[in-house]
Amino acid sequence: MTGAGQFLVYVVAFLLPWWHYIDLPQYLVFPLFMSELALVVLFVVDSVRRGLRVPFEYLLPLGLLVALNAVGYVAYFWMTPVEFRQPLDHVYCLYNNLWPIAVLAAVHFMSRREAALAALDVLAVSVGMWSAVALLGRFTGVFVTAGMMGLEGCWGLPNLVVYGIVAAMLGAGRRDRGSAGRWVLDGAGVMSLAAFLILGLPVLDVRQASFEWIGWWLPVQYLASWVVFKLLAFWPVARMAAKVEVVRRESQEKRDAVYLLVLMGLAALALVRYLLTIGTEYFVVALAGAWALPERAPGWYRPDWRLGAVAGALCVLIGFNLVNVNPHNFRDPRNYAPDPVFQKAGTMGDYDVSRLERVEARYPMETQTNFWLAYDRLSRGELFEAAMEYRESLWTDVTRTGQRVKTILPPPTDEQRRAFMDKLRDQSSAVAPGEHQGAYVVALLGEDRVDEALAMMRKDAGTASVVPAVDESGRDVLAWGVSVYVYDLELYERLSDWTAGDLLGLLVAWGAQIEQAPEGVADDCLPVVVVSRAGMCEASPPELVSGDGVKAVCLAGDGRLAIGRGQVEACAEGVAKTVECGAPEVVVRVKPGDGEQGKGFQGA
User: Is the Cβ–Cβ distance between 564 and 525 less than 8 Å?
Assistant: First the structure.
């Protein structure tokens, strides 16, 4: 069984950098998890048959971590409410808690130093391949890679790339390597170094130790503190490092020992800052610790065509997932659509929002980014902003550019859109019109459901209790103001049967401020509608001039648009000072006498 165990260790070493591209959750295919689980099962069987071949000084600290993680696995489901559990939680939680016993298995089977060093060679080559793919995608744009999303979204990859560099140096410097092997390892090291400098270094310190995810590892409230867990994690690392140091002092393999100590030191530094990547750190440490033990078996499995065949099959799977983002794989940073658990819990976390914003900045044609940002806005109670984000999610790549543009993920499904609209409608109905500011109407217009939008507008207009009387000559200005406010200039034609009072009542119901114009302003300039929102001048250009003499001018470059007749700039003077740019606000300037004729209106 020793050869089979070493073979599985090589497979795990090959798969470590690729876990973003290998899971097929819809088919319950998890190659890395399955390989580790098979390694653990083989380790248990072999230990029963031939005895445990792990020294006590390794076994004691790792055994405590195994027991602690076993309790943590059970406690996770005990402490997690049923409504927040996902179908694959058992798989992912078991995978996250399996690493201590997988480390024991690696030490158990790495019975010769050549086996441990060969596993590190496999890791170095695999990391080099990952780095080459990441750099190719980064600079060519032929396909989207996980590295293009920022390495802080790829748990532990900055550290793993550094380990790949050191492992490549270790392999290239060994005398038993032929020239071809050294060239391969040198190339892997160069690729890994380039990926680290270009992709990893800018974000290496972004990810802090995550307290919110400690529940994946242990029930902190009942067993131990985070500090105690860290100390337990350092204990076996210190014991293994001491073994390597003894070998360095007493043997002729000083160069190998120094490289391995560097690897273990880097892993120890990563343990200080990171929590989620402990499994990766410990795998590297386990290979170094196994190398330091006395050789316990005469033979070992040398990587051959069988490992190459498995690696080739896995490369086919990796290639497929490189060009096709699996929407079911929430562990892939490219699948930016958040886990449904965030929707059940309410607001998304800051990390998920920042990931969506990065994707939106790099790939502006994506529609799912706007859709999930709309969901986040909605969960925060920002109804109008949620409606605007949702509206942008309806603008497909063909609508925006006139040609088909490849996107990372397909647009939201009709079922997802219906669920969002139902939630937006319910939240809008639960607040006053001035608080929802016509959010549901904006979303309806985005879906081209104009008749329903007009019916909602009629309903909202009837809720305005204080509306100043305005002359019908200002109807066109108010109609254009409403159209600009909802980002739908075509709506102006559908408002032809609305009176000036109806239009002003709608704006008042949606929270518009009414201000009287200063004395001396010509009556034919009024009313003036000032709409303020970030990007308003870009969305509704100031050269907008209608056939009835209404025109719009941009009061400032930050998004304040004035709509009126004649000298709009003079009529709107002073109005812009009362409006905070960026908020979906409207200020309407009316004649000085209009306020006295209104229903209880008190002029500004």
Answer: yes
